[in-house]
Design goal:
The complex is a heterotrimer of chains A (about 475), B (about 500) and C (about 50). Chain A is mainly α and about 475 residues long. Chain A has 20 helices and two strands. Chain B has a domain of about 210 residues. Chain C has one domain. The termini of chain C are far apart. Helix content of chain C is about 80%, strand content about 0%. The longest helix of chain C is centred in the first third of the chain and has 27 residues. The chains are: A mainly alpha (about 475), B mainly alpha (about 500), C mainly alpha (about 50). The interface between B and C is medium-sized, with 35 and 19 residues.
């Protein structure tokens, strides 16, 4: 398959899959097989693009014009390649997990669930491969709309409320801030294409204008959950856990930080932004988000809420690293997209497994559960290690680059923030692990619930293993990250 | 041979259809004639559009009396676009009308309904195509009077009051218009629009001319329902038969906007309008008021049609905002929204009509849970709603792009934020419908309903699909709108 | 010539307006606006709008 065809296939496969899922809705086993087959096919297609991109090629395809001078166009570059791989790779695992979870909890409307998932992946592929800001914006909004039924899956008043906050924050930020930012970029630069070195360099914009435009982008990209536009993330926890796992590892949040990095590197260009005093607020806002979110996580008893704020914090790592504008930190930022994904999805899988098996949602209930659910909590421990940044877990490697980047940029505050938040991460994860294995249970359960359904546990183990193995699994993550920054 | 007379046929065909329907007296024949007239009008409009695009402006003298003594029909980039819109909406609404009118209007009045429909169509097409100011008034009144009758045919007795209010306000508007035209005639001695444009330079800035501008502005703004002269619209759209609202919502106000643009840019000229009088500021303030206040009013309605009607007043604010920007991007946005909102709102009212057909009501209380029993209709409303919000991939987004661009071109970031912030209000009222239809338990009416019949759903969903299509393939809409904007700014006719 | 047209239009409008008033009288039993609005206000409570 030619690279150009592969790009279109990557979009078409999940979309067609969604239609087939709806068609097979009445036969659950067939429907689930369609999901797994689609996910597998997608991963294969995306993998087919990897060798070309690693070799320096940038496959591209341009379709019709959306507006005069702005086509619907796709172009695969290293950053997009990494994002697409992370998303498609984790979709299969997430689907496997979903089967265990949805059946274990006897959820309703499963057809709608799997179909919307597939559409969300199609939108994600569109975001990953977009060649210009308008194409990207279209798929970005599509992702918001398609995930709404997933967030409001349970259909009760709580789900509706969470859905309102979710949609409200994401659409408000994208319509009020991101769209004007894009139109302004078009007006200033005359193009919306993503180019190495950025497109705003020649526009002769004042420092204030650049800083303002950057602000519109950063707060417009609501999916990156920079404070104060982060509230949609904890609100989305009303969704079933496979959705949270998807939101927090695979599609939505990673799309957010992906766009942040893409805008900084390919729209502004690190050189254009370096030395713009009016952009200095960004590391500060990101640093604040890291610390504030960590503190909220520390105080949260609900496990998913703690994980949600942990995500807000970890996303801000990517923004901070990108905002430092030096090659080392940018490499760390890109790597973190991958490492946080596998680590966080493991943690969410574990949370969902605990809920399915033991019906427990609060951290305070988790003492001693490690003995009954050793695999789950073992995986949790690995995920936690990765997020804290302890080798050999994947998270260590991305953090290492970020720290090096902070040093290279001479940004001591960033360094301090990274160090402090590592401690905070430890403070809100390690007690859970310790309590699960080393403390006795507070209340003995009515019966021994044992582990979660097999499919869920299998998925857990795969991602936990990935968290350990990712840095050593070929050098593609690092190579892609380096290629984003380099020529 | 025929093609030379297309401009005349554009109006004559629907105009003649009306008495034919009255003679036929039977609803079925009436419907057939009306539908045929609509399709013919669309075909003529498309032919004219293509001709103008390829060879430039067409001038046609009625009865071969040369202008400026005889009445002249002129088709250029601006009104050919409007003609296509009106023809297209008539063609979508007419097939739908068969069962919708059967359900909502007493049988002995069916033929009357179709005859009036043809008169409205003829009137609107006439307004768009004519090059004579008084001829415009005649067509304006033809279409208005026929509209008053159509609105009064609604089942609810409040339709009568709504029609009466519209009659009073519409007549005031038409009267103001005629006073303005009279003043112009007094000063220039001609009624031909092109001739007026040529002669008005001599008397530019004189009191009567400025007064004429003011009178015409107020008169036309009454008809296009610019805030705060919009009072007649919500009740008129809500209580009239669904077909009527669907057709009028997409056309009547849009044609009135065309009249405003024609007088501002082609007759008076940009300089006079925007420099001599503070039109930019006035329209800016009123547009912002419409965009925010009317949209906000839409949020608090308890009836889908009222919500859509107030939404229309808000959306008209977008169009006048583009006018107030007075630059190419802004005017392109205005012309675009003329079309985009026309098809969007028409489609939405057609879908609302499907609800009326099955549920006999569009109160939100009755629409609860209808997403389950009438999934296609509900999905159609969501699609149209997203177009109102301006989600990318929808027609409404394209408009928003040009309005923001126009504001930036005019150097104002504050104005640039206005369309996007107000679209959040649109999101609010659209989402109110979404939650009602999908999250609430089905009401008694909704639970008993089935999906709407194909003959109703077909045109309605075609309209919704058009919202999506024109969100992606913008070559026709943006091309036509930018040519129209260029023609307006160029000033000459 | 044009005045004639304007007069005809005016008469038609007047005729239509009067016809509407007659129909309103039939439907509401009154042509006083406040009574009509009161009647509608009460009616809204028990009938669904069209």
């Amino acid at each position: 398959m030619s690279p150009e065809t592969a790009i279109l296939a990557a979009l078409a496969i999940p979309a067609v899959g969604a239609a087939l899922i709806v068609a097979c809705g009445r036969v659950p086993n067939l429907r689930e097989s369609v999901t797994l087959a689609t996910a597998g096919l997608l991963l294969a297609t995306v993998l087919a693009l990897l060798p070309a991109v690693l070799g320096g090629a940038r496959p591209a395809i341009t379709l019709f014009n959306l507006l005069p001078g702005i086509p619907l166009a796709f172009r695969v570059e290293p950053l997009g390649m990494l994002f697409a791989l992370v998303a498609s790779g984790l979709w299969i695992v997430n689907s496997l997990y979903s089967i265990g979870y949805m059946r274990g909890n006897d959820e309703h409307n499963q057809t709608r669930f799997y179909a919307c998932f597939a559409l969300a992946l199609a939108a994600t592929m569109g975001i990953a491969f977009s060649a210009n800001l308008l194409t990207l914006f279209g798929f970005y909004e599509l992702l918001t709309l398609v995930t709404y039924p997933l967030v409001t899956h349970h259909g009760d008043a709580e789900a509706r409320r969470g859905g309102r906050i979710y949609l409200g924050y994401l659409l408000a930020t994208s319509i009020v801030f991101l769209l004007p930012a894009i139109v302004a970029t078009w007006a200033f630069a005359g193009t919306l294409e993503f180019r190495p070195g950025g497109i705003l360099g020649g526009a002769a914009l004042s420092n204030a204008a650049l800083g303002g435009l950057l602000a519109l982008y950063m707060f417009g990209i609501g999916k990156a959950a920079l404070m104060p536009v982060h509230r949609w993330l904890p609100a989305a926890m009303v969704a079933p856990t496979p959705v949270s796992a998807l939101l927090h590892a695979v599609a939505v949040v990673k799309a957010g930080v992906f766009v942040v990095v893409k805008v900084i590197v390919y729209v502004f260009g690190p050189d254009t932004l370096a030395g713009v005093r009016a952009a200095d607020w960004l590391p500060t806002v990101a640093g604040f988000t890291i610390l504030a979110a960590s503190i909220v996580a520390l105080r949260a008893d609900n496990l998913k809420r703690r994980l949600a704020y942990s995500t807000v914090s970890q996303l801000a790592y990517v923004v901070l690293a990108a905002a430092l504008l030096v090659p080392l930190s940018l490499v760390g930022a890109v790597l973190h997209i991958a490492t946080h994904a596998v680590g966080k999805i493991t943690l969410f899988f574990a949370a969902g497994a605990i809920y399915t098996a033991a019906h427990k949602t609060e951290v305070s209930q988790l003492d001693g559960i490690g003995r009954r659910m050793p695999w789950t909590m073992g995986a949790f421990a690995i995920g936690a290690l990765s997020l804290i940044g302890i080798p050999p877990a994947a998270g260590f490697f991305s953090k290492w680059y970020m720290v090096q980047g902070a040093v290279a940029a001479g940004h001591w505050v960033a360094l301090a923030v990274l160090s402090a938040s590592t401690l905070l991460n430890a403070a809100y994860f390690l007690p859970i692990v310790y309590g699960a294995f080393f403390r006795p249970e507070r209340v003995a359960p009515a019966h021994d619930h044992g582990e979660a359904p097999a499919a869920a546990v299998a998925a857990l183990l795969v991602t936990a293993a990935a968290t350990l193995v990712l840095p050593f699994l070929g050098t593609w993550p690092l190579a892609l990250a380096r290629a984003t920054v380099g020529p | 041979m025929i093609s030379a007379h297309l401009p005349a046929l554009q109006v004559v065909v629907p105009l003649l259809a009306a008495p034919l329907i009255v003679l036929a007296r039977r609803g079925a024949a009436g419907w057939a004639i009306a539908t045929a007239a609509s399709f013919a009008s669309l075909a003529i409009a498309i032919a004219l559009f293509l001709q103008v695009r390829d060879t430039g402006m067409i001038s046609y003298a009625i009865g071969s009396w040369p202008p400026p003594w005889g009445i002249e029909y002129r088709v250029d980039a601006v009104n050919s676009f409007v003609l296509v819109l009106v023809g297209a909406l008539a063609s979508v609404v007419a097939p739908y009308a068969w069962r919708s009118v059967a359900a909502e209007v007493p049988e002995d009045q069916h033929y009357l309904c179709y005859a009036m429909f043809c008169l409205v169509l003829a009137g609107l097409l006439g307004i768009a195509i004519t090059g004579d100011a008084f001829n415009l008034f005649v067509f304006l009144e033809i279409s208005s009077l026929a509209s008053y009758v159509l609105i009064a045919l609604g089942r609810d007795r409040r339709a009568l009051l709504a029609s009466y209010q519209y009659l009073v306000m519409g007549t005031i508007g038409a009267t103001f218009y005629v006073i303005g035209v009279g003043l112009l005639y007094l000063m220039t001695g001609t009624l031909n629009l092109a001739d007026l444009a040529a002669r008005i330079g001599d008397v530019q800035g004189s009191r009567p001319v400025l007064a004429a501008l003011a009178f015409i502005t107020v008169g036309v703004c009454l008809k296009l329902a610019l805030f705060p002269l919009h009072y007649w619209l919500p009740n008129a759209y809500a209580y009239s038969p669904s077909v009527v609202a669907a057709f009028l919502a997409g056309t009547a106000t849009k044609v009135s906007i065309y009249v405003l643009l024609r007088f501002y840019f082609s007759v008076f000229g940009e300089a006079a309008t925007f420099v001599a009088l503070p039109m930019r500021e006035i329209f800016l303030v009123l547009s912002l008021a419409a965009m925010f206040l009317a949209s906000l009013a839409a949020v608090f309605q308890d009836n889908l049609k009222h919500m859509l009607a107030y939404s229309s007043v808000g959306q008209i604010g977008y169009i006048t905002l583009g006018i107030s920007l007075d630059n190419e991007a802004g005017l392109t946005g205005s012309m675009l929204h003329l079309f985009n909102h026309g098809i969007t709102k028409s489609a939405l009212f057609l879908l609302a009509g499907c609800f009326v057909f099955r549920l006999r009501s569009v109160q939100f209380a009755d629409l609860a849970g209808v997403g389950r029993t009438m999934p296609l209709t509900t999905a159609g409303i969501v699609v149209g709603g997203l177009s109102l919000v301006g989600v990318p991939g929808m027609a409404g987004f394209v408009t928003k792009w040009y309005l923001v661009l126009g504001a930036l071109d005019a150097g104002s970031w504050v104005i640039a934020f206005a369309p996007v912030v107000s679209s959040l209000i649109a999101l609010w009222y659209v989402w109110r419908f979404v939650e009602t239809a999908y999250f609430q338990e089905p009401s008694a009416a909704a639970a008993a309903a089935k999906e709407a019949p194909t003959v109703l759903l077909g045109p309605a969903l075609l309209g919704a699909a058009a919202c999506v299509y024109f969100g992606f393939d913008t070559s026709f809409t943006v091309g036509a709108a930018s040519r129209a904007a260029e023609a307006l700014l160029a000033g000459m006719r | 010539m044009l005045i004639l047209t304007a007069i005809v239009v005016g008469i038609a409008t007047l005729a239509l307006g009067l016809a509407l008033v007659v129909r309103i009288r039939e439907a509401y039993g009154t042509i006083e606006e406040d009574e009509i609005l009161d009647a509608d206000g009460a009616a809204t409570a028990d009938r669904p709008g069209a």
